Amino acid sequence: MNVSNNSTLVTSAPIGITTKDACVDFPIFDAKSRSLKKTVMGLVGGNIDSGRKVPIIEALRDITVDLEHGARVGLVGHNGAGKSTLLRLLAGIYEPTRGSAEVRGRVAPVFDLGVGMDPEISGFENIMIRGLFLGMTRKQMLEKVDDIADFTELGDFLHMPLRTYSTGMRVRLALGVVTSIDPEILLLDEGIGAVDAAFLEKSKQRLVALVERSGLLVFASHSDEFLRELCDTAIWMEHGRIRQHGEIEDVLRAYKSGRP
Ligand SMILES: Nc1ncnc2c1ncn2[C@@H]1O[C@H](COP(=O)(O)OP(=O)(O)OP(=O)(O)O)[C@@H](O)[C@H]1O
User: Fold this and answer.
1) Is the pLDDT at 239 greater than 90, yes or no?
2) Of 49, 118, 188, 248, which residue is most buried, by most CB within 10 angstroms?
């Protein structure tokens, strides 16, 4: 965990995110360090620096970005390249170990659709709680709850405890709430595989509308189709570093070919 204090949350300035040479390290206290090679650069993941007493995963290295209102940024990269960690840095959840990160605006982090859900309370109650968790007020959620309920098509199940839902039903509920909010900064980690194809199509339209009314989007995804639909620029992450940052088509082409 990072204990430095180089991350700032600012709410009065125009919305945006600025990082300068930001690094994020994860020290691993229970690693079997004697069996690790000195410095490992595998095909996936960040670097592991095992030349010290406590091995360190170098999850992000020298990240410098300046994202302003209207930015629609996709994040691409191999497994373990640092996309989710970067989203957490941009959300102000992780502080940089070195360098700085400034977040200006109200952030809605949508990393794990299930976070903030309680299995023991009803679907309706979960809609309210998840909305509050994502920065909405109680009044705003009361105005949206009927629309969300219709969207989920869960009917009377909305009165049942969440533990009685299938995985796909939970995702429907979570997506209904997430796509109803009005965020200044929307940070999205793709994770909607469990819904059926027809519902996914319906969710896409709501996701597009959500992105249109949010001030700034950063979206990590392995789906080119989704990235093209929601983003106009992209960042290619590789081993914790930004390999390329530019127009989405240029970055996708470079990422596929392995050459910027
Ligand atoms: N909580 C953590 N503790 C230790 N190491 C972590 C932690 N979270 C991420 N890492 C490491 O940081 C690196 C970047 O991981 P991250 O989850 O950001 O990758 P990703 O690009 O989102 O990958 P994927 O596409 O597989 O979801 C990886 O090497 C991973 O092992």
Assistant:
1) yes
2) 188
C-alpha to C-alpha distance for 113 and 230, rounded to whole angstroms: 18
Rounded Cα distance between 23 and 61, Å, is 5
Beta strands 56-68; 16-27: pairing state: antiparallel
Q: Is the beta carbon of 55 within 6 A of some atom in ligand 1?
A: no
pLDDT for the residue 1:
38
Structure tokens at 148: 């969300």
State how far Cα 46 lies from the chain centre. Answer: 18
User: Structure tokens of 74?
Assistant: 């996709």
Atom of ligand 1 nearest to the CA of 46: 29
User: If you take atom 23 of ligand 1, which residue's CA is the nearest one?
Assistant: 80
**Nearest C-alpha neighbor of 36 from the set 21, 19, 55:** 55
Q: What predicted TM-score, i.e. pTM, was given to this entire model?
A: 0.83
Across residues 234-250, what is the average pLDDT?
97
What distance in angstroms lies between residue 239's CA and the mean position of ligand 1's atoms?
Answer: 10
Fold of 7-106+224-257: Rossmann fold (3.40.50)
Q: Name residue 73's beta-bridge partners.
A: 218, 233
Name the closest-CA residue to atom 11, ligand 1. Answer: 59
Tens of pLDDT along 100-119? 999 999 898 887 777 778 99
Average per-residue pLDDT in the chain? 86
ipTM for this model: 0.97
Would you say the CB of residue 26 lies under 6 angstroms from ligand 1?
yes
Ligand 1 pocket check for 81: Cβ under 6 Å: yes
